Amino acid sequence: MDAMAEIRQTFFEECAEQLAELEAGLLAIENGEADSDTVNAVFRAVHSIKGGAGAFSLDDLVRFAHIFETTLDELRSDRMEASDVVIKVMLRAADALADLVTVARDGGTADASRNEGLAAELKELVAAAKGESPADAATDAPAPEDSADSADSADDDFGFVPVAVDLDELIGGGGGGDQAYRIIFRPHAALYAKANDSVRVLRDLLELGEGNVQCDTSEIPLLSDLDPEGAYFTFTVDLTTTENEEKIREVFEFVEDDCDLSIERILDSDTGSADGAVDVDSDLADLLASLRGEAASEAAADAAPAAKAAKADKPKASMPVTADQPAPTTAAAATPAASAAAPVSAPAKADAAEAKSGNVGGSPTQTIRVDLERVDRLIDLVGELVIHQVMLSQRTYQAGLARASEVAVGLDELEQLTREIQDSVMAIRAQPVKSVFQRLPRLAREVAEISGKTVRLVTEGEWTEVDKTVIERLADPLTHMLRNAIDHGLEKPDVRLAAGKPEEGTVKVAAMHRSGRIVIEITDDGAGINRPKVREIAIAKGLVAAEANLSDEEIDNLIFMPGFSTASEISELSGRGVGMDVVKRSIQALGGRVSITSKPGKGSTFTMSLPLTLAVLDGMIVTVGDQTAVVPLTAIIETLQPKPEEVKGFGGDARLIKVRDAFLPLVDVGRELAYTTTPTNATTGVAILVEAENGTRSALLVDAIQGQRQVVIKSLEANYRRVPGIAAATILGDGRVALILDVDVIVATSRTDGIHSNGLQQAAE
Amino acid sequence: MSRTILTIDDSRTMREMLRATLTSSGFIVVQAEDGAHGIEVLQGMEVEPDVIITDINMPRKDGFQFIEEVRVDPSRRAIPILVLTTESDAEKKQRARLAGATGWIVKPFDPVKLLDAINRVAA
Amino acid sequence: MTNQIANPAENDNKGEGNGRELIAFRIGEQEFCVDIMSVREIRGWTAATPLPHAPSYVNGVINLRGAVLPIVDLAARLGFARTEASARSVIIVVRAEHQLFGLLVDAVSDILTVTDDALQPTPDIASELAKQFVRGVMAIEGRMISLIATDNVLPQLQAAA
């Protein structure tokens, strides 16, 4: 990628960060949680975006950012109050800015009328703050400047109105032949204090043409009164040049406030002193050059300004230089000396400083930026390492090595080490869900606006960490569920008021860790699921039998069935949106699950649970028929050896097992997976007590337990597709593939009225 | 004979743009992320940079404060400092001048003008 | 036996006027072939871990250097009797779109180079099933070899998520 393209990418990355800061800052101000720096940070965020946008000539973005920035300037200077109304406008402006960034990055068109409307609102705010009419506010910052600010020019009626003046015309005959000028330049001390250098200025001036320099040293006081940082010289330059006065003035651009400057055209009859200019000029150049060379050999220090001044006055054929100049001529310009010395040590120092600036980064925790590909590769390799370590252990024991021997001890240590490496490596990719949660406030605002509701969004647990791969795929389902909660869950304001609820609905999105998984709940205080209606629709669409007896919970979860949709009202969102069944499937593809609970009149809660990482799992290795399978440890409560009297038949092939005082369903895993055709022998097998997402308990019946270990998860979807009842696959020590069971699904399908081995079959179709 | 430039800007994009332009013209570029960091980095440089280019709006310590501090330090004050301003804002320029800036460059910067400004203030 | 074929994408198989290279293999008494461009490697047989309730032509999955690879019994897929896999069976690892999977066949016979015009349309008497992924037939040295297109061998079910 070429340099510019790379920087452009950096710019958009940075924009994303700045936009997040911007929104977070504005929300903090809205919630009264802002401190003195928040407003500045918000200003800087927009300022930064504008700066970069200008560099890439993204004019629309620059224009809007500029207006936004100006408004924020009023805010940070305390000329505008951060009222609720103001902040709401700012938030919308932030959204518009984000859209413009997206358009700049990806193409497409922005919503011009919305943006212009917002811009107008911002201008009004500024005008109000300044106590002016909006028209006046638009012509702020009068200074006419060169065209570097193309974005601020003509199109922008708010900002600068550059006044281009063609001085060529004024001076007349400019650009044609030579003109003679007399320039009188008297630096003030301040000029040197700012590290400006009159020699350089004169040099630059002389580059415009030909001329000579005369220095009036009459103001130099006696040594005892000399201020080493004082300025005592007046230079008179007679310059012949084809350039116009504007160009001449430009040379003095940086110093014009710190000097007395006069530039006059000399009419031809006056060229007296300009005679012989050529000779003097080359002498001057030589002298200046030799001065530099000479100065390099001398010591430096504080007399630098005086040294520069003294240098300037040294030269000249036509110069009455008093020989008793103050000694500091020897004080060679620190700059040339330093420049000479600099190249030698600069590279080393620059490296050190660079390394330092790279490392320190201005913040306490050090971070480095790493290519994601490298991290992924590392994780893959560590996964392979784990597999091979397990294989090694197994084969060693199979070869008959005693478990207490040194080799065995070494192998155990190796296993510990490998696990630690794996944990550390997985932690690299773990990220807080904050990055996904960040988009939610804006989404909530938009959905609320379109659906005509008012919403307050509360988020919790944004620092809960999850593997990066999971995070990325969380965004879509989360978005859809939030849309659903606001659009379908919450009632319209008048309905809410009538029901005695506050007009503003509340949606809470909370993330937490629970039994080795990450759980995200989206709760709304809306009307809850309209069960009769849902049931009706499901029956009408043939998703359930008319006479089926469904529990409340089962009715609620009907919305996840394929083909179900509550878009009987056409809402803009549903049209664009996807059904809950797609949401469910995308979550399941991640190895997660989703369910809904609801209380009529009070609200609903979507619960989404996902594995913390898509890469490893602690599992129990079991024998099912003639195959080996893995049961995730997080689902397991305990294992039991059933006694004959504890197992009861229950109609057909179904069996129950008595565990302490309860009878739990005994799920024949072999039958569910169609690995076996005859029922598994309960008394010779093992019962694994498991708890499903909804808290119900069952026992999985398998033939034997082989052991427990951490396995590397391999995806089935990568090369095949999702298999119901199977969460993923793994590679065992012997190199064979073992399937990792999706306990909830297996249990659920085994319970479906009297359907056993057919349960999964139906799910598969 | 390479010259060293210290660039101070809180925007990563701007830092990289400056670096790209300056290194391709043979400068050695040292970076800092804000005014406070700039002071730290500057103090850590045994041989001072030939020029400092600094942004104005930055967290912790802004450009004005940075310049003022540099100008107060006897060992560092002779270093030419250019400020980056985003517009031809006379007020900003004035403040920059008062703080002790040697000159300025307007953002978005034209590489030619940038080098020109550098040459004007540094040997 | 594992023969790895260096990335076929590097073989310039296109438009030198010469058509393409194919790997021919046997299922029972019949011969088929696939475009070498879609073949990743050829391996000996390993027993697959069965997948519950999978279609009858999916034998299960095997471990291919750390990746989980489904194995398709091509005979069953074509509507013939299931293959009696043995140690002499061969798995041809192919890539279709974004997936890798293995074709279980009886033996690999040749690598052929054919011109494009050698391909004739599939005869009408072929079964509907076969027509789904037989791209055409060729007559080579008196043998009839059917060209299999790997894209449809493993149907894509739910494309969502």
UniProtKB/TrEMBL annotation, chain B:
Signal peptide: none annotated. The keyword Phosphoprotein applies. Residues 4-122 form the Response regulatory domain. The keyword Phosphoprotein applies. GO terms for biological process: phosphorelay signal transduction system. InterPro entries: Bact_response_regulator (IPR050595), CheY-like_superfamily (IPR011006), Sig_transdc_resp-reg_receiver (IPR001789). Pfam families: Response_reg. Coiled coil: none annotated. Keywords: Phosphoprotein. This is Response regulatory domain-containing protein. It comes from marine sediment metagenome.
Automatic annotation (TrEMBL), chain C:
It holds the Pfam family CheW. Signal peptide: none annotated. Gene3D superfamilies: CheA-289, Domain 4, SH3 Domains. GO terms for biological process: chemotaxis; signal transduction. Residues 19-159 form the CheW-like domain. InterPro entries: CheW (IPR039315), CheW-like_dom_sf (IPR036061), CheW-lke_dom (IPR002545). One of its GO terms (cellular component) is cytosol. This is CheW-like domain-containing protein. It comes from marine sediment metagenome. The lineage of its organism: unclassified sequences, metagenomes, ecological metagenomes.
